[in-house]
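Final report, Chapter 2: Outcomes

The project's central promise was a pipeline that accepts a single protein chain and returns its three-dimensional structure in a standardized token representation, suitable for archiving and comparison. That pipeline is now operational. To close this chapter, we reproduce one record exactly as it appears in the project archive, with the input sequence first and the structure output second.
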Amino acid sequence: MTAPGAAPTLTTARLRLRDWTERDLAPFAALNADARVMEFFPRPLDRAESDALAARIRDHFARRGFGLWAVEAPGAADFIGFVGLSVPTFQAPFTPCVEVGWRLAAAHWGRGYATEAAAAVVAHGFRQLGLDEIVSFTVPANVRSRRVMDRLGMTRRPVDDFDNPMLPPGHPQRPHVLYRLPRTAWEREGSERRAPEPTRPALEHGNARRQGDEPQR
């Protein structure tokens, strides 16, 4: 029996997206303290801030039934970061919405993990959650994440770009680019190619906010 608010465990060819455990807190704090990982955020997080973020992530799952999964690479690493879905708390022309986001440890960049995990999350969002659209956003200079958005089939219209209201006017990271993926476009472009239909072993259940007002790339 699945516990109330439990997070489904998603598996891909190389990754396992699962609920968070206490063992994840230390590597998560190291990730959030890494200036490379946090380059496109206002600043790195200290341990208390990182632990508070992990608590919000788990609360998001409990309240909404979806959120940011902890990601592991079986046989390689027990925790490499998070990938998942969240609801931005700020108001913008495109909100309310559901955003796909990710944050991986630098040691695991360049291996296609973000795309692989995000594709599974997008498929879950459309198939299991019945979402009509999934968005993603980041600062213009974040080329790595923008490439992931492209690979997911998301598209950007410059007219949709916006200033993140969570940052003050004049802040260099306030301008953001917005990418969108409607369900109809995802289906039309071949959802089966992005992520296979989960089988019973691949869709397990366990237990699991991100800082909902900040982009998670």
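Archive annotation: Residues 10-195 form a domain with the Aminopeptidase fold (CATH 3.40.630.30).
This record, like all others produced under the grant, will remain available to the consortium after the project formally closes.
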